[in-house]
Amino acid sequence: MPVIFPTADGIVGKQSLNFLGGAYDDIRAGDTYVGDSAFSNTGTSGDVFTEAGLSGLVAYLQRAILSFDTSGITATPQSATLNIKGSSHKSADLIVISATLADSSQVQAADFWNNSTANSATAYSSEIEMTSWSTSGYNTITLNAAALSQMTSADVFTVGVVGHDYDHDYSDPGATTNFSKKTRLILSDTSGTSQDPYLDYTEATTGLPKNLIINSGHFHIKSGKISF
C-alpha cells in the first residue's frame, strides 16, 4: 500500500479577545494566527481545540490542515486512510473535511479564512470519537468516497482535521467560564518521518480488458471458469 507524507501541515486558528459567553460562532470574526507562533509551538505538534471563557474571556478555535501530493494517483483507490499520531490529551471529537491552502508548500494564518466555514465543507470521514483515540500511537482514520475521488482528480489533496461538535457542527457551548475541548496531534516537523502524519491507500485494481484478443501462442487457465 503506497504511503504519502504531507508536503505541508500545521495549525491555523481564530481568537476573540472579548468573548463573554455569547454565541460561540462569534469567534469566527476574530483575528487569525498560525498556532505555533501564538502558542510558542515548535511545529512538532499542535492542538485541534475549541475553548471559551478562559484566559480573561479569550475564546479560541483551532484546526489542523494537511496537504499531500497526489499527482501520481491516476485511478480511484480502492480505499484510503489518514494516519495521525496522538499526543498527551484528547477531549475533542474530530472529523476530516475538505480544505485549501493558498500555498501548498506551507500553512499560513490566512488559510483559516480560506476554510472558515467548516460546516459547509465536504466531509471526508465520519465523526472520530475519542473513546478509541490513542495519545501515544497512530490513529487510523478511514476516508470516504468523496475523499477517494478528490485524491484521484486533484494533484494536491488537502484536508482539514477539525473539532466535530463545536466547529464542524457549529454547536454552541453556551455561556460558560470554563469550557475547553482539545485533542493534540503530532505534525511533520518532528525529526525524521517515524511520527509524521501520512496518507495510506490501496491502489485501484486493473481488470481484464473488455476485448481480449490472442493472435498466437497459448492461453492457459490454471483454475476457475471462462464464459463466452
**Structural domain tally:** 1
Number of strands: 11
Classify the fold: give the CATH topology.
Answer: Jelly Rolls
Broad structural category: mainly beta
Q: Could you tell me the strand content as a percent range?
A: 35-45%
**Could you state the order of secondary-structure elements as H and E?**
EEEHEEEEHEHEHEE
Mean pLDDT: 79
- Name the poorly predicted regions: 35-42
Radius of gyration computed on alpha carbons: 21 Å
Helix content: under 10%
Helix tally equals 4
CATH architecture title? Sandwich
Q: Major sheet: size, sense and barrel closure? A: 11 strands, antiparallel
Distance between the termini: 34 Å
Brief descriptors of the model:
single chain; mainly beta; elongated; 4 helices; Jelly Rolls
Descriptive report:
The protein is 10% helix and 35% strand. The chain is mainly β and 228 residues long. Strands 1, 2, 3, 4, 5, 6, 7, 8, 9, 10 and 11 form an 11-stranded antiparallel sheet that branches. A hairpin with a 3-residue loop joins strand 4 and strand 5.
In brief, what are we looking at here?
10% of the residues lie in helices and 35% in strands. It is mainly β. Strands 1, 2, 3, 4, 5, 6, 7, 8, 9, 10 and 11 form an 11-stranded antiparallel beta sheet that branches.
